[in-house]
Amino acid sequence: MRKQIAAANWKMNLTLYQAETLVNDLLAAPIEISEHQELVFGVPFPYLIDIQKKTEGRERMLVAAQNCYSKVSGAYTGEVSVEMLKSIGVPYVIIGHSERREYCNETNAQLAEKVNVCFEYGLKPIFCCGEALAIREAGTQNSYVENQLKESLFHLTAESLTGFVIAYEPIWAIGTGKTATSEQAQEMHAHIRAVMAAQYSSELADSISILYGGSVKSTNAKELFGQPDVDGGLVGGSSLVATEFSAIVNSLKK
Ligand code: PEP
């Protein structure tokens, strides 16, 4: 079975005290994480070491950075490199979240560079893709998402894509309370898998975990995650509430 992942994206939220309290509450919650599942905390840079220490010894609880820079080192004031993340043992990096694409003008070409440095240093990208409302309304979401994958990933070999995670996040569903229906999510996830199979192989496409993101809540997680091509979720708002997020983790496919 492909890895099933519940990934929290805290975004730019929580003080250190609030973050520690949230993780303490989650560690005390009745969460079951079986062998083919993972809980990933996508936390702000300053908290990575602390949250990693807190979850030490808890199997299959990992941290993710929310971004990285596309260069390895040098005169890039304010940026954080994958080499730095690697040196503190961070396994995952969220790449290309729609908020970074929109507010920081990240392009598909720049994201290709970020994916490259992640693989160079052995970090696993959680690569975000997804369309805006106007594209969904025009009915061109499949080709739009396909192009995002093509321009940021298709230069890579199948071998380097091992352990790759894709998060499909329709922009119209992020933080809006408007979730994609389970049919819409399944349709796009199957499309993404078919695109990866056509470019690489069905073996590789079947091994990639594809997460859904966009107003996932405890009340809709089970249905969304129950779809055959939905391998868990990237969760924003609901990951900030311990009772909500623990229920979402427990909704992963068993
Ligand atoms: C996200 O930040 O990736 C996200 C999906 O946010 P939300 O769950 O709040 O819609």
Unreliable parts: none
The number of helical runs is: 11
Strands of the largest sheet, in order across it?
A: 1-2-3-4-5-6-7-8
* Total number of domains: 1
Helix content: 25-40%
CATH evolutionary superfamily: Aldolase class I
Output mean pLDDT.
96
What kind of assembly state do the chains in view correspond to?
A: single chain
Structural class: alpha/beta
CATH topology: TIM Barrel
Q: Architecture, according to CATH?
A: Alpha-Beta Barrel
Bound molecules: phosphoenolpyruvate
The largest sheet is: 8 strands, parallel, barrel
What's a concise summary of this model?
The protein has 254 residues and is of the alpha/beta class.
Description:
The protein is of the alpha/beta class and 254 residues long. It has 11 helices and 8 strands. It has helices spanning 16-28, 48-54, 82-87, 98-103, 108-120, 133-138, 141-153, 182-199, 202-207, 221-225, 242-249, and strands spanning 4-9, 37-43, 61-65, 92-95, 124-129, 165-168, 209-213, 232-235. Helix 3 links the parallel strand 3 (61-65) and strand 4 (92-95). The model has no long low-confidence stretch (mean pLDDT 96). It binds phosphoenolpyruvate (PEP). The site of phosphoenolpyruvate (PEP) has 14 residues, from strand 8.
Key words describing this protein structure:
40% helix, TIM Barrel, alpha/beta, eight-stranded parallel beta barrel, binds phosphoenolpyruvate, 254 residues, 11 helices
